[in-house]
Design a protein that fits this description.
Helix content is 73%, strand content 0%. By secondary structure, the chain is mainly α. The chain has a single domain, classed as Helix Hairpins (Orthogonal Bundle). The longest helix is centred in the first third of the chain and has 24 residues, at 11-34.
Length: 70
């Protein structure tokens, strides 16, 4: 998911997306501790996407940059 795609979504949509990603990250970490993973790089990708979402939500909360028009 690119930054432009994230910025075009509403805060509610981003919150739902963030919850899904955090759950997936938890599941992957749990699997990596107990089993072997097929795609270990997915953990890194998810961590970066979560950080990107949090950054954009924080920017909106601070008023640095609002939601762009679709």
């Amino acid at each position: 998911m690119k930054t432009d795609e994230i910025r075009s979504k509403t805060n509610h949509e981003l919150g739902i997306e963030l919850q899904k990603m955090k759950k997936e990250l938890f599941d992957l970490r749990f699997k990596s501790a107990t089993q072997s993973l097929q795609n270990g790089s997915r953990i890194r990708v998810l961590r970066r996407l979560i950080a990107r979402l949090n950054t954009i939500l924080n920017e909106r909360a601070l008023g640095v940059r609002g939601q762009e028009a679709r």
